[in-house]
Design a protein that fits this description.
By secondary structure, this protein is an alpha+beta fold. It has 11 helices and 7 strands. Strand 2 and strand 3 form a beta hairpin. Helix 7 runs antiparallel to helix 8, helix 8 packs antiparallel against helix 9 and helix 9 packs antiparallel against helix 11.
Length: 385
Amino acid sequence: MDFSWSEEHQAFRKEVQAFIRANWSGGSERGDDEASRNYVKAMADNGWLTLAWPKEYGGRGASHFQQLIFMEECSINGVPNGGQGADRVGPVLMIHGTQKQKEEHLPKIARGEVSWCQGFSEPGAGSDLASLQTRAVRDGDDFVINGQKIWTSGARHADWIHVLTRTDPQAAKHRGITYFMLNMKTPGINVRPIQQMHGGAEFNETFFEDVRVPAANIIGEENRGWYIAATALDFERSGIFRMAGMIGPFNRLAEFAKQPDSAGAGRRIVDTQEHRLKLADTATEMIVARYLGYRVTWMQSKGLVPNAESSISKSFGTELQQRNARRGVSMLGLYGLLAKGEPRAPLGGEYGHLYLSTVSATIAGGTSEVNRNIIATRGLGLPRG
């Protein structure tokens, strides 16, 4: 099997790198500040935002592997990749949306005019998402939603939310769930930031109090939302960004380890066999993670639907993020736990931040335990316990 890139793919990667150098002036990878929004707009203007979408929906009709290369370079360079509208909501609407929904939402996503967040998890329904209790009750041509979502990434800055609700409480828990799209300015939606232990507040609680939404905003069929949301989760879990986002921090750690005085941190990383093995382990595992992600893309390019394969990529990638962070702070010693902005923090406090922020990696988007169940039952065909 040939794992090398073709000349065409290599040229495309250089094109992406040149675009990033020309348009990225620094900002938040989450896309929630002015510099990042300007960059997202530049992506949209050049067709990068919806690169692999069909041309009829505002994309460039690029191949799955071109999309992978683009996402990989975005993550390596720490730039926004377009968010949930481009990588999740848009593809779901192409598969399950009505013609009117496609005409209304896809062009706005392609032009970078709207941002999206995801209302799935609840305080009592995270790993067991199908136990969600947020209710949507029909009232004429509308539904009225009441309930609470949690861990809603980017909710404070999002324009729209795609949200799961229970519409038939008498049905089995995987049934009777309906998938809606809501404008975040709809009366009755309130967002409360969640302060995280690394100092940021990327997660939010989202409250719905008598929120009216037109029945026309249902994605797919009423009471069949669970099965449609599974499509969105497969898109979420299949990304190469988890591995690619580690390349920069890992390379900086490896280079830092060569320095005699660790950039003035007050100590140096002692050159030991243990530390060499930690770096070697991470480098090897990053290669494994990369090819697990490539496998998902290969399946998509063949018209196959990755399911267990996406869960394998997600679980391995997020657990590797945590291992890399632990190995880094272990190598850096107590200085490695200093926060960003601390004058004696090595690497600008990058690994202290990673150590705290990657705690959520194996939970968000489906816990490692849930993904292992998917791997066991859908991938290996094992019976349910």
